Amino acid sequence: MNTPVLFWHRNDLRIVDNVGLTAAVARSPKTVAVFCLDPAILERDDVAPARVDYMLGCLRSLRNDYQDRGGDLLMLQGDPTQEIPALAERLGATHVMWNWDVEPYARSRDRQVLEALTEKGIQGKGHWDRIMHAPDAVMTGSGTPYKVYSPFWKNWRSHSKADPYPAPEQFESLTAAELETANSETIPQLRSLDMTWDGGFILDPGTQSAVDTLDSFCTQSIEAYDGDRNFPALETGTSKLSAALKFGAIGIRQCWAAAEDMGNQSRSDEGRAGVTTWQQELAWREFYQHVMYHFPELADGPYRDQMKNFPWENDEEKFEAWCEGRTGYPIVDAAMRQLNEIGWMHNRCRMIVASFLTKDLIIDWRWGEKYFMQNLIDGDLSANNGGWQWSASSGMDPKPLRIFNPASQAKKYDPDGDYIRQWLPEIRTLDTGTLISGNITPMERQGIDYPGAIVDHKIQQNRFKQIYKAQRES
Predict the structure, then answer these.
(1) Which secondary-structure segment (H or E) carries 34?
(2) Catalytic entry in 284, 344, 367, 423
(3) SS3 call for 460
(4) Which position among 197, 312, 340, 444 bears the catalytic label?
(5) pLDDT tens for residues 234-257?
C-alpha cells in the first residue's frame, strides 16, 4: 500500500499545469488533495461575495476532475495552521506539498504550517506555480529586485519558459476508513457562508471554461489585442481570464504557451504585436507578484515617502457617490456601475476611476483599493495594490504624476459612447458628444435621474498638483 502524500490546494484550483501537484504525484500515486476554507480570509472586511462564489464553483469543478480520475478533493474549514498538519497526521502522510503565494498573510501562514509539520515529523514543501519564475530568479545586475516594469520585462522575457505540466492520469483513492478519518466536509453554498451574489460571472468557474475561453481568445482576438485592449465596449479587447488566473483555474504556463503558439502562427506585424502585448500583460501580473514578495510593506501603505503622510481630503459623501456611480462623470459612473453589477471592470476603466478618486476627489487610494477588493471577482492583492499605487502616484512608477481627464479618456476610448450607454441607461438617449463630455445642461437633466458633476476636473487637478508639489518639496 502506498503511503499518502497530502497536496494542499489554495490559488491553484486545477489538476493540469500544476507544479506542486505534479511533484506530489511523482512522490506517491496516493496523492490526497485538500482545500481548507480559512475564516481569517472569509471573514475579512474586504472579501467579495462574487469572488467567493466563483472560488466555490472552481472547487466543485476541481472535485469533479479528481473524481473522474479515481480521486477526490477533501474539504476542511478552519485555521489551516492547525487543520492541515492534523489531517496529514490522521492520514499518516509523510509529505505535505503546496504552491507558494507571495502575499504577506499567506507567507506567514505557510511558515506556521511548515513549523507544525516539522514538529510532527512530516516533511512540508512548497513550489512556485502561480508565476513563471520565482521572485529571486529575476533580479537586476546588482542582485536587487526590480522596481520598474520595463527592465523587468526585458529580463523576465529572456528566461526560458517551462512547458505546461500534464494532468495526472489517475489517482489512488482513499479507503472507506481513511475517508472517515479525514472528516471531510461538503463544498458549501455561498449562502451558508452568510454571503449573497446574483450578478453572475463573466467567465464560468472551473478549468474547462477557462481553457475554452483561452482557446477562443487566441484564435479570435489575440492578434487584434494591441489595438482593442483599451476600448471597454469591445468584447475582443480582453481575455476575461483574470479570475481564472487569480484562483488558478488555469495555469500561467498554459496561457503563455498558447500565446507563443499564436505568435509563431501569425503572419502579420499587427498580429504579432497583439500577441506580444498580451504577453506583456501576463508579465505585468508577474511583476506585481514579485514586487509584493520583495516589498511586503506595500500591502499596508505607499512606496513613495512623500505619499506616506499625504493630506487626503477623504470626503465620505464624495466617496459614496464614487462607489455608487453618481459622480456626474459618465465614463466614471459607467465603470463603477459595471463593477457593482457584475463584479468586474475593464482595465482601462480601472485606471480612469482610480485617477478620478485620487486626483479629482483627493481621496486616499486605500479606500478605493479596499472597495475594489470588496467587489471584484478577480480581486488579487498584488495586482490591485500595484494598480492603485500606480494611479495614486504612490508606487514605483518612474513617472508617477499622471492625471486622467475623464472626458478625454472617454473621447479616446469610448468614442461612440457604447460603453457609457450600456451601463448608464438613463442617459443613453443623449447625443454622443454630451455622453462623453458629461456636459449635460439643466434642461437635458429634466426627466433623467442623473446628477451633475460633483467636482470640476480642471480645478481639482490643479489643487492636487499643488498639494503634491508641496509634499515633494517638504
Answers:
(1) strand 31-37
(2) 284
(3) helix
(4) 312
(5) 988 999 999 999 999 999 999 999
347 in catalytic set: yes
Examine the residue annotation and report whether 388 is marked as an active-site residue of this protein. yes
DSSP 67-103: HHTT--EEEEES-HHHHHHHHHHHHT-SEEEEE---S
Q: Does the annotation mark 99 as catalytic?
A: no
Q: Which domains does the chain have, with CATH numbers?
A: 1-129 (3.40.50.620), 131-162+206-294 (1.25.40.80), 305-473 (1.10.579.10)
**pLDDT-above-90 percentage for the chain:** 89
pTM, rounded to two decimals: 0.96
To the query of whether residue 83 is one of the catalytic residues in this protein, the response is: no
The one catalytic residue among 98, 100, 153, 365:
365
Q: What does the pLDDT look like over 316-333, one tens digit per residue? A: 999 999 999 999 999 999
Is 197 considered catalytic here?
A: no
Which residue out of 388, 390, 405, 423 is catalytically annotated? 388
| C-beta separation of 81 from 112 below 8 A | yes
Q: Which of 64, 155, 340, 347 is catalytic?
A: 347
Instruction: Find, among 346, 339, 159, 157, the residue nearest to 236 by Cα.
Output: 346
